Fold this protein.
Amino acid sequence: MRPGWMILLCVTVLQARENPFVPAEEPKVQLQQTAGAAFRPAPQTNKRKILATASPSSPSKPEVVNFQNIRFLVQSDRIRIETKDTMIKDFRIAEPTRFILDFKSDADFPTRSRTLHTSPFKALRMGVHDGFYRVVIELGDKSGYEIHPYKYGYLLIRR
């Protein structure tokens, strides 16, 4: 039985690479042809570098927050609130500056919180109450805001 284990060990050692975490060869990318247009692979880049230079406050790319029944797309001057639930109340608290929205729903989920990186918005919190859930948006300034319905939910816009 020992000679069998020795042979297996020798074969395994001979098959092993120096560093198993580095790919043995570059993966080959195949181009696909669709309707006469060729798709070319994206240039190889360092993902860490992209993440370090990406700016969540860029106006073209909103910061996205997905909670239970609601989705927030946060930009520097507005928040798009996408939900099918009906807003039953909204109000503002002066100190600290917060905008509060109540939505009718019988949903049940744990309280959620998320720090935002898009100025002037600081954080989002969402919690369930009896017959509704409440969304609290913390603001970093005392600017005026208006809320308007739109096709997919509501828009909170800075005046």
In short: The domain at 56-158 is CATH 2.60.40.3500 (Immunoglobulin-like). Helices lie at 2-15, 47-53.
